[in-house]
Amino acid sequence: xxxxxxxxxxxxxxxxxxxxxxxxxxxxxxxxxxxxxxxxxxxxxxxxxxxxxxxxxxxxxxxxxxxxxxxxxxxxxxxxxxxxxxxxxxxxxxxxxxxxxxxxxxxxxxxxxxxxxxxxxxxxxxxxxxxxxxxxxxxxxxxxxxxxxxxxxxxxxxxxxxxxxxxxxxxxxxxxxxxxxxxxxxxxxxxxxxxxxxxxxxxxxxxxxxxxxxxxxxxxxxx
Length: 223
Description:
15% strand; 39% helix; two-stranded antiparallel sheet
């Protein structure tokens, strides 16, 4: 069968002047500099329509061959959230009492974390992101490409979207995470990648007083 050329459409991105671009990036930077990982959530409900928009935004991220090798599991059911919390705390207890070495534990001290994860029940939503090494299609397995990179990009889009929506989250990776696949009954081709509690911050929520690296520390210029 003769291969068909992929269809193309005109690019419709914004056309900005240098001044407009500088203003836009400065405003975006100022907004994202306020983004923080939050562990104290309000029980205030978040409508499903908002979660749907967040996932749609995440799915606009680039991916290898446009395969979009991910599944977003959005969980509001309190019974399922309870199961996830119990399983996560079990793994985290082992992490804090043997799996993590002394340096890792010392690096975590400024964050004040431990194996207890009440936010997994308090937050009105949990979004569990699964990576898909391959898809099952009518004719069998279809390989996906640059899976880790593609899922990571989508998660980055999702994090910024959550912040821009006035919500908060926390990147939670209770390694190992196989229990998520079991509790959510996901197929063999899906592996858990990231767990995000999503909601509004609790009144008086506190975050660690941390600083990001400077531009000079992060950048090597070749002019």
